[in-house]
């Protein structure tokens, strides 16, 4: 049919402008984990849609119809040719292309329906649209494979129920996965609430669980509410336990602060003491108590430590100053003791004159004590030299005593008497012809002779 101006007039069932392509129904929402390519490939291989999508292409209308020179447009069908319209806006080739494009528009609509069905979009609506479009085909003013479009529309209608069941199954699978994930998150939150003492890390993890929770959709309402109550209860339990922990920590820190304030007062009282050894020992005890008191609130703890250390520094600075002053006084004493040692060391020679060495040592010791103390760094050296002299004299006296020891001399004489006795016994045995007894007596005499010689040698070497 044509308008009065000669342009082609659409017949019944003319296809309209194609609608935008439908959005994929399984695209993950923001924040949801995206499936891996391998998982998508695996899912696609096991859930392939029964009705494949045919990508529309530009067809050749000359295979399916013609336009006469007078403008009459014909389409070929299995029942023969039928008139679909009239073309008066140009030559026959332009008219054929016009009706071919109208067929391509219809084919595009069918392809969109197939895409919707394959994507799982509302199958019932897709079926209704396919049936409505199929009703227009017998009177459509197009030139193309109308019967092929009709077959595709029938396939869409036939598979729509199957697609609806498939979409439902997919929805149930997704709901099950999401439910399992929320159950796992709720269980993890409950474990954190019951066991964790890593307060910051656990608190951060609970917030991460909440963020992920918000991205999980499609869970049954009642199940979702029950799982949410589990998570919420676990989070509240964790917060109560964490609050109780920090409240107890605050109490402990307050007690530590009080104790450290007392230690500061005690340290300040001792800072002016001049009883150096005893007060130094008390400060060491106070430091041990300070460490055992625990931590006070941070700012207070640092201020109290500065206060305690300041009092401690005052005492030890005064002690060091007093020790330095005393050491300066003792420097002259060290010089005097060096002079004493230099004068007496040549005089004390116990190997040549033991009694003279003893007398000189006693005189040195008396004068040594009268000089007094020396600086600490000189004490070891000077006292070591004095001890060396005392040791020489003592060793010489011990050696002299051992040389004149009556017991040692008597012991050597007894050994000699035993030698003589056994030699006499050997002679008698030999005279009596008792050779074996004689040998035995001589062996014993030899042993006692060795002991006697050893005893006499010990006395003579001293």
In short:
InterPro entries: DUF349. This protein has twelve helices and three strands.
Question: Could you characterize the architecture of this molecule?
Answer:
- With 462 residues, this protein is mainly alpha-helical.
- It folds into five domains: 126 residues, no CATH class; 75 residues; 56 residues, no CATH class; 59 residues; 55 residues.
- Helix content is 72%, strand content 3%.
- The protein has twelve helices and three strands; from the N terminus they run αβββααααααααααα.
- Strands 1-2-3 form a three-stranded antiparallel sheet.
- A hairpin with a 4-residue loop joins strand 1 and strand 2.
- Helix 2 packs parallel to helix 4, helix 4 packs antiparallel against helix 5 and helix 8 packs across helix 10.
- The longest helix has 50 residues.
- It starts with 36 loop residues before the first helix and ends with a helix.
């Amino acid at each position: 049919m044509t308008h009065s101006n000669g342009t082609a007039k659409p017949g019944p069932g003319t296809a309209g402008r194609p609608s935008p392509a439908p959005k994929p129904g399984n695209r993950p929402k923001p924040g949801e984990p995206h499936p891996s390519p391998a998982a998508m490939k695996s899912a696609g291989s096991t859930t392939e849609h029964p009705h494949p999508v045919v990508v529309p292409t530009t067809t050749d209308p000359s295979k399916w119809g013609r336009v006469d020179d007078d403008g009459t447009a014909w389409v070929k069908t299995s029942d023969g040719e039928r008139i679909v319209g009239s073309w008066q806006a140009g030559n026959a080739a332009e008219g054929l292309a016009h009706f071919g494009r109208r067929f391509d528009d219809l084919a595009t609509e069918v392809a969109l329906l197939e895409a919707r069905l394959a994507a799982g979009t509302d199958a019932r609506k897709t079926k209704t649209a396919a049936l409505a479009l199929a009703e227009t085909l017998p009177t459509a003013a197009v030139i193309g494979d109308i019967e092929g479009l009709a077959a595709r529309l029938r396939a869409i209608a036939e598979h729509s129920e199957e697609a609806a069941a498939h979409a439902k199954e997919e929805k149930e699978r997704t709901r099950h996965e999401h439910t399992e994930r929320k159950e796992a998150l709720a269980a993890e939150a409950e474990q954190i609430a019951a066991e964790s003492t890593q307060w910051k890390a656990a608190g951060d993890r609970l917030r991460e669980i909440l963020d992920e929770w918000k991205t999980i959709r499609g869970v049954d309402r009642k199940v979702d509410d029950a799982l949410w109550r589990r998570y919420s209860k676990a989070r509240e339990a964790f917060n109560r336990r964490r609050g109780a922990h920090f409240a107890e920590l605050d109490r402990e820190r307050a007690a530590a602060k009080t104790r450290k304030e007392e230690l500061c007062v005690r340290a300040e009282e001792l800072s002016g003491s001049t009883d150096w050894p005893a007060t130094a020992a008390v400060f060491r005890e106070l430091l041990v108590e300070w460490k055992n008191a625990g931590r006070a609130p941070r700012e207070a703890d640092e201020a109290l430590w500065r206060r305690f250390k300041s009092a401690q520094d005052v005492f030890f600075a005064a002690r060091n100053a007093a020790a330095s002053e005393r050491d300066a006084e003792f420097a002259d004493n060290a010089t005097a003791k060096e002079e004493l040692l230099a004068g007496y060391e040549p005089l004390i020679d116990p190997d040549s004159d033991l009694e003279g060495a003893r007398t000189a040592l006693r005189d040195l010791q008396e004068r040594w004590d009268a000089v007094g103390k020396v600086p600490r760094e000189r004490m070891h050296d000077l006292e070591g030299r004095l001890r060396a002299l005392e040791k020489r004299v003592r060793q010489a006296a011990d050696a002299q005593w051992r040389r004149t020891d009556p017991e040692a001399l008597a012991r050597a004489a007894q050994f000699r008497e035993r030698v003589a006795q056994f030699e006499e016994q050997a002679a008698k045995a030999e005279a009596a012809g008792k050779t074996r007894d004689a040998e035995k007596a001589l062996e014993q005499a030899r042993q006692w002779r060795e002991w006697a010689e050893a005893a006499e040698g010990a006395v003579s070497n001293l």
